[in-house]
Amino acid sequence: MAKIHVNAFIGRENKNAKLKLENNSQVIDLLKKLKINPVTVIVSRNNELILEDERLKDNDEIKILSVISGG
Amino acid sequence: MNCCSQKPIMEMPSGERLCKTHFTEYFESKVFNTIRKFDLIGKEEKLGIALSGGKDSLSVLNILNKLSKQNPRIKINAIAINEGISGYRDRTLETARDFCSKNNVKLHIFSYKEEFGLNLDDMLKILKVKPCTICGIFRRYLLNKKSKELKLTKLATGHNLDDECQSILMNQMRNDIAASARLGPRTGITQNEALFVPRIKPLYLCTEKEVTAYAFINGLLDSFNECPNAPQAFRANVRDMLNELEQKNPGTKYSIVNSFLQTLPFLKEKFKGGIINICSRCSEPASNGVCNACVYLEKLKRKVEA
User: What is the domain class of A3-66 according to CATH?
Assistant: First the structure.
């Protein structure tokens, strides 16, 4: 089964991660791989919010923004 | 189930999936319903919005600005406090200025440096205290004092469902139920209004995730950074625990706050007897003869002079 590559910006850590995922992976699979609780983030692709069951595509640029703020 | 043919962007605890337009409608309706349900805003008000430049306070301001445009008898003013936290507050204040300028909202900025002679970073070099303790005392002091000077009828804050839920559990764990009696969607109202400007929390029933999504959709998420002093171990632990529970049992936070609301009238009745004094130095509210802000200012003065 082919793999896909996804570039994810992780807002809370202010860093980018390149991940290899199974073909047909969903946003939830990406979050699980990064050990991120979906309750604590919103996820966007091309500046549009996407849900946890959204299928990811090869070379997707994903932003994972923390909902937790302080001050 | 999807709300319409548009792509869904948020899933509700009920399982309903809302598109951008319907989510915005849902969120704003929820805030207006919260305002009605808890009688947060009257027919004629001069409202203040405590503005940090973060997603919560900008979302409150955005919605109350819409309300003000619909009801000219509701005037709004934004108040921002510049504590003097390098690398953090300058950026959020820039976002606040930008929003107010574009939306024609009057913004008042008050700084620790001008009001107390020192900014927070300097205070923390002088006194060995938890940053959030001293910062909270001075911020609350200035917000109340300046709200009175501006003759504001109420002060709206960006506290959301997650904030309230964490505070309820933290007070339980500390066995400090008197502190819980001071929570709720409107506070300070039963006290002396000449001393306290009542506080209201329009986002009381909105989760942090909902607020973030609303802010993202409406372009209010520009300055999304965290106060360098923010990580308070205890609150962070409670927050993480609640988020794990919410993931496993959606609706947990709402249930905690909803059940708390049913007990709140009893708590307010039980703890209503507290006597509020007037600070002998600054005439602001105080639980003792001198308010906490004046106590800390005195400590700072002594250390600087030593």
Answer: alpha beta
